[in-house]
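Ex. 9. Protein: Trk system potassium uptake protein TrkA.
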Amino acid sequence: MKILILGAGQVGASVAATLAREDDDITLVDTDANSLHKLQDHYDIRTVQGLASHPEVLERAGAADADLVLAVTNSDETNMVACQICHTLYNTPTKIARIRTPEYLTKPELFSNEAIAIDVLISPEQLVTDYIERLISHPNALQVLDFADGLVQLVAVRAFHGGPLVGNPLRELRKHIPKTETRVAAIFRNGKAILPEAETVIEADDEVFFIAASKDIRSVMAELRRLEKPYKRIILAGGGNIGIRLARALEHDYQIKIIEANSARADYLSEELSKSIVLLGDVANEELLLEEEIDNVDLFCALTNDDEANILSAMLAKRLGARKVLSLINRAAYVDLVESGTIDIALSPQQATIGSLLAHIRRGDIVAVHSLRRGAAEALEAIAHGDKSSSMVVGRRIDEIDLPPGTSIGAIVRGEEVVIAHHNTVVEAEDHVILFLTNKRYIKEVERLFQVGFTFF
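Predicted structure tokens for Trk system potassium uptake protein TrkA:
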């Protein structure tokens, strides 16, 4: 695929790095020569310096031959104009744009071929908000990912000392919860992936990814760790785009306090939010946190635009007694550094965003992609089409499918029915198949499995 990425910020650079490793033909456009040089030194990509909305720059970048344009500059307006130009001048097949301003997003009629020609809108703030909401609804989880419109979830938890399954092989799981169907998709131990088998023994501190119907998630989780009480009191540190969206989503079900350092923004938040308490102050102010009884807070979310402020305030909140702390961190190197220490959950916005972009880039009928463990692993939902003569998966038992190393099928969704995958499960046409890849090197092979041969047409 020839892919044109406009904007070499965090999202653009992350997507370029991911796709360059997968042998796609990538051209990256940005005004910042330094950013482009750094990326070109590291990855096999072409770069063009210039303003992404200028026809002459798009011409130089090869827009005429692009299969897909991904506009992720820091300006909504630049992204919109660039997509429109690619549509008008080059009839680019797929145009994806990052749009952050809520005023644009609430007017869907703006985005069509008759108006502004954008095929897919991406709002990172909304994706991160949804992600945090799912974590809040599952207090034990490190990660919660939806598939098949929420019928199935993939959940990551850390196994704890004394847990019912710790020290026991995976085949014991069925004895513990005989009425609940689930499958362990992967285990990460000391950062390394272990492909789970019946005899695999779970150890304390293992990061366990399991898949189950959404209604069964809690009972499976109870086998791997002590179930925590639901959250009640939540402090959001930072009232930016993510802070205000999260407060709006949560304030009717939880006790929400939001800390904001800018007085004008704090005034705006207090007018916009109906039940949340808005506090003017520094998110890393010890006195303020003690005053607000941080030791009684169930969850502290550090959501400012400053990684250092987020890390320090989350660590301080944890030291002062907050039950759990979550920190938004943009720099990938920081995420690995802090997540194993004081901070319970370190969330990378670009990793949350990348999955929704990849779903539109992957070949085969792939409808959902989730990037896991800082992009090292991937979970995806693919639709099986065709019949036994035209498809490499339809009409075959799972143990007959030639899956690449480190790849497993966790579940199949057939209409409204969730089928947890076993070796003798047969894939049918139009099944939604949920796969887990511990090694993204094999993504192309998985895509090929779900491409239909010519006999089908």
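Check your answer against this statement. The domain at 137-224 is CATH 3.30.70.1450 (Alpha-Beta Plaits).
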